Amino acid sequence: MTTFDARASLSDLTTTVDRVRRSVENVIEGKPEVVRLALTVLLAEGHLLIEDVPGVGKTMLAKALARSIDCSVRRIQFTPDLLPSDITGVSVFDQQRKDFEFKPGAIFAQIVVGDEINRASPKTQSALLESMEERQVTIDGSTYELPSPFMVIATQNPVEMEGTYPLPEAQRDRFMARVSIGYPSPEAELQMLDVHGGVSPLDDLQAVAHAHEITKLVEAVRQVHIAPGVRRYAVDLVGATRHHPELRLGASPRATLHLVRAARAAAALDGREFVLPDDVQVLAPAVLAHRLLPTAQAQLNRRTPEHVVAEIVRRTPVPDPYGPGQRGRSSR
Questions:
Q1: Which of 21, 39, 230, 329 has the fewest CB neighbours in a 10 Å radius?
Q2: What residues have CB less than 8 Å from 171, skipping those under 6 apart?
Q3: Domains and CATH numbers, the chain
Q4: pTM metric for this prediction
């Protein structure tokens, strides 16, 4: 893609994404950074895990993003009795045709909203593994492609909440980023009472972008340049998690790939054709922390993976985005 084409694509991207952002923020008040991360994951071809206590708008955020885009949307309510076939689909014998016919499950949509994913058993959660990574489903030896764009937005309550199962490590690793919405400010909560007091704002939400537009924007994000030094910076950050004394499980190579993809999308959202180290720094906690397992001693010391990632970001030298070398200074 030429420079002119890239600029034109980024211009279209910022215009379209701004429409989607305003649409979502009509429902989710006072959380612009959360909405931005959700859009970043969408453009980076990733999946989003929204984790927080009940009642702060996890499902509302997922549904608002899904309704703002004119595409197929399916919602899966994860419960302890949910079966893997409910998600992926099942082959049913057709008496008239004397043959098996595949009945697609809820995963066959462009945006899949998984509500309270950690209330289902790990076996059922694992039904998402192939679809999230390879964008396909294999049933009885036959492979079925999933539509494009494809994004899973899953919500979950903290593991200490009653009646939940922890997500398997392989499942968490499929999510590009994890975000916590948190409680709103008093001003935003007052505004919420005015807006949500009568009817749900989701009822009036209209699609402001089409699926084919999002597909084009994803292609534009892939063209964003990332210098070798910034690539190395992402590798250094992820590599540091694998040797940190307070972690018993570091981030995988998939995490490096997700971090780079997300950084490209963040740069595109800012209208830039290139990635800065700042893009990688800002996204590192959301992309890496949910994949890490702290040691027992770290847990006793109340050291969370977010604390460890913040420490790694501070200690890792930042590259010069305008040259191949490194400045040799620590992150601010």
A1: 329
A2: 122, 125, 126, 128, 129
A3: 3-223 (3.40.50.300), 224-332 (1.10.8.80)
A4: 0.88
List strand residue ranges (DSSP E) for the chain, in order.
48-51, 69-70, 73-77, 89-94, 99-104, 111-115, 136-139, 142-145, 151-156, 177-179, 209-210, 247-249, 293-294
Q: Is the pLDDT of residue 55 over 80?
A: no
**Which of the residue ranges 194-208, 210-224, 264-278, 305-319 would you say has the lowest mean pLDDT?**
194-208
Share of the chain above pLDDT 90, in %: 59
The span from the first CA to the last CA of the chain, in angstroms, equals: 34
Q: Please state, in angstroms and rounded to a whole number, the distance separating the CA atoms of residues 237 and 256.
A: 9
Cα separation, 66 vs 60, in Å, equals 10
What's the CA gap between 271 and 260, in Å, rounded? 17
H and E: helices and strands count for the chain: 14, 13
- Residue scoring higher pLDDT (3 or 166): 166
**Scanning the structure block, which residue is given the tokens 């890496």?**
288
